Amino acid sequence: MKHFAILCSLFLALPYYSSAAESVRANRNDSVNQWVLQQTTLGFVASLLVDGKSMTVQRVIVTRVAKARPANGKGDTVLAVGLRDGREVVRVTIQDPLYSIVEHSGLVRNDRRQIIVALPTEQRLDQIDITLSANGASAKIDARPAIVEFCRAQPTSSFCQN
User: 67: which DSSP letter?
Assistant: First the structure.
């Protein structure tokens, strides 16, 4: 999962990257591709910049994401709730990278940090609500532009049909 987050952050850092811009046609009979398809689902990835109690949305994309796994429940968390027509569709809790260990400095509080959260769902979302347990900061994200971008490039995707 750590490597997946790093990969997502690399993609989200590219200013002109679009998850829907290129449609890769992989051989579905390849064993590695089959494994990846079994371990992932369509979903949303949101990149946020947190600075104290303020949160700025950097990017939201629709792409394949790892299927949900329960968080360990220790420490500060980020709660992401995906909504469609006002009802909850998906709820994900991840660890908040509020603290890190820095060589020669020890434990360091990162008031300014990037958070990337993936919401695995085969359903379209209208809104993503984010809440940080560390300070109660929250944000409401309009997810519809990410759907429009994805479906413009991949209109035959089942995700774009509902």
Answer: P
